[in-house]
Amino acid sequence: MYPIFRMLYQLNKHRKSPALPLDGVHISHHICWPVDIDMWMELNNGRMLSLFDLGRLPYSKRVPLAKTLIGNSWGMTIAGSNVRYRRRITTFSRIEMHTRALGRDARFMYLLQTMWVKGEAASSGVFRAAIVNKNGIVPTDEVVKQMGFPDWNPALPDWVNNWITAEENRVWPPET
Predict the structure, then answer these.
(1) Which of 22, 40, 43, 169 lies deepest, with the highest CB count within 10 Å?
(2) DSSP 91-141
């Protein structure tokens, strides 16, 4: 089940947090509860993706993305992700999550999220976010213009460009 109450808690907790620039870092804190673990007594990989939502949505509120989405009747969807798991996150671990935008291309915004436990990186995910309306994907030029950052277009790191290239070469639809 989606952690809706935890999401509401995070949105409420950060409702008065100061605004961030698009490439600013939103830091949030979470706990790995018993409902989050798998049979190996560590954070379930599916739940990890849900917990990353708990960082992305308050981040989108702190930058003017959420306001822009609502004002234009747009939505945001994750169009791809690549997650690295490097350290076990066990029950009752305290997690510090960092969320920030890396950059954009013509269609997608790229967000980096990391989970830290006891000062050590536990996992990291890069997320390809599409802003959508009833006609499909909204070009990111229009999105950043509506957000008030028309010139925001930092160069994406090489490793993100490599991931984008790998995704472009991936067979779709998948073979049966």
Answers:
(1) 43
(2) TT-EEEEEEEEEEE-SS-EEEEEEEEETTEEEEEEEEEEEEEETTEEPPHH
| 100-151 confidence digits (pLDDT tens) | 999 999 999 999 999 999 999 999 999 999 999 999 999 999 999 999 999 9
Question: Is 174 among the domain residues?
Answer: no
The answer to whether residues 17 and 60 touch, using CB atoms and an 8 Å cutoff, is no
Domain-embedded: residue 131 = yes
Between CA 62 and CA 95 the distance in angstroms is: 20
Any domain includes 44: yes
Is there a contact between 34 and 91 (Cβ–Cβ < 8 Å)?
yes
Q: What is the mean pLDDT of residues 21-48?
A: 95
What Å distances lie between residue 137 and 75, 106, 154, 166, CA to CA? 9, 10, 20, 21
Q: How many separate domains does the chain show?
A: 1
Domain with 157, as residue range(s), is: 4-169
- Mean per-residue pLDDT for 21-29? 95
Among 66, 83, 85, 84, smallest CA distance to 75 is for 66
In a domain, 35, yes or no: yes
